[in-house]
Amino acid sequence: MIDTAKQAELLERAVEARDRSYSPYSHYAVGAALLTKDGRIYQGCNIENASYTPTICAERTAFFKAVFDGVREFEAIAIIGSGDSPAFPCGVCRQVMAEFCEPSFCIITANRDRSEVVVSPLSDMLPHSFGPRDLL
Fold first, then answer.
1. Domain ranges within the chain, ordered by starting residue
2. Beta carbons of 17 and 81 less than 8 angstroms apart
3. Where are the alpha helices (DSSP H) in the chain?
4. Confidence tier at 135 by pLDDT (50, 70, 90)
5. Judging by beta carbons within 10 Å of its beta carbon (0-12, 13-18, 19+), is residue 20 exposed, middle or buried?
6. Which pLDDT band holds residue 108 (cuts at 50, 70, 90)?
7. 59 noted as active-site residue
8. Which residues of 117-128 are buried (b: 16+ CB within 10 A; e: fewer)?
9. Measured in whole angstroms, how far is the alpha carbon of residue 87 from the centre of its chain?
10. CA of 26: how far to CAs of 52, 84, 100, in Å?
11. CATH number for the domain running over 4-126
12. Per residue in 34-43, is it b (16+ CB within 10 Å) or e — as a string?
């Protein structure tokens, strides 16, 4: 797990990302801040579409930006939504995390005002996951 100062920084960067959300249909904005092993932070927000299927979550936006830049090692992600409860990653996002992260990857989730923060490893969020290590 990462220290509380880094958690706070990631949550602040997730709030910045949430402010860029395009969510005219659900009105539920989400921001994410992804920390790489080398200390870079990639931000992402949810981007909706009237057809819903092309909608992308904040977490995947951040991961795909990092992967595009050639990054393959990640330490933590902070996710913050616009609701009263912490914004947990959906199943698809959890599977993307399993593709690129170790089971100890740190997931930090929070509600809109950061009064409720939950920190847990990916292994708790996606037990018995299937990933690239299973194909070797």
1. 4-126
2. no
3. 4-18, 58-68, 91-100, 122-125
4. low
5. middle
6. very high
7. yes
8. bbbebbeebbee
9. 9
10. 10, 15, 28
11. 3.40.140.10
12. bbbeeeebbb
Place of tokens 């989730």: 109
- Residue 45 DSSP SS3: strand
pTM given for the model: 0.94
Residue holding tokens 């977490």?
Answer: 59
- Could you tell me how far CA 93 lies from the centroid of its own chain? 8
Place of tokens 């659900």: 26
Residue 59, pLDDT above cutoff 80: yes
* Type of residue at 87: A
Q: Give the tens place of pLDDT for each residue, 31-41.
A: 999 999 999 99
Q: Which of 9, 48, 59, 116 is catalytic?
A: 59
A 10 A CB-CB count for 113 gives 9
Residues 6+ apart with CB under 8 A from 5: none
Q: Residue 13 — pLDDT band, cuts 50, 70, 90?
A: very high
* Residue 20 predicted with pLDDT over 70: yes
